[in-house]
Amino acid sequence: MTRGLCTAAVTLTPEEMQRLEELPGAANEVPEADGCSYSARHSGRHAFAVQVQELPGQETVHWWVIWDGPEQPDSTGYEIVTLEACDAERKGDVAGASTCRLPVHEGVHSWS
Fold first, then answer.
1. What span, in angstroms and rounded, lies between the C-alpha atoms of 90 and 105?
2. Which residues contact 80 (CB under 8 A, 6 or more apart)?
3. Cα(85)–Cα(97) distance, rounded to whole angstroms?
4. Confidence band for 61, pLDDT divided at 50, 70 and 90
5. Which of 21, 31, 15 is nearest to 75 (CA)?
6. 86: exposed, middle or buried (C-beta count within 10 Å: 0-12, 13-18, 19+)?
7. Residue 73 pLDDT exceeds 80
8. Is-contact 97 90, C-beta < 8 A?
């Protein structure tokens, strides 16, 4: 679930999952639970992506779960919001993802 990164995680309610999956132009199956997408010991809020909306003639909308500690918040300890995606792209022949999969953030990329 946490992909070897930050160990913080959230479990969504069935209602939240359904609402996100029924968004117009929803492109992903929403995970019931997932871990923070940032590296271990990061500063600031925790975050993981839950949905992407692809709306014709409009920019893609990225939905994220964000929260301040604790590592395992209850259903009132997180928010589901839209955030701009980081547009950093991998250069050269560095292995890994071709683009950053986080919201806009400070700091470096592991493949920079």
1. 16
2. 12, 16, 20, 50, 63, 64, 65
3. 14
4. very high
5. 15
6. middle
7. no
8. yes
Alpha carbons 65 and 58: distance in angstroms, whole number: 22
CA-based R_g, the chain, Å? 14
The residue ranking higher by pLDDT, 63 or 71, is 63
What are the start-end ranges of the E strands in the chain?
9-11, 33-35, 46-53, 61-67, 79-82
**Residues counted in the chain:** 112
The overall pTM is greater than 0.90: no
Mean pLDDT of 98-112: 70
What is the mean pLDDT of the segment spanning 96-105? 72
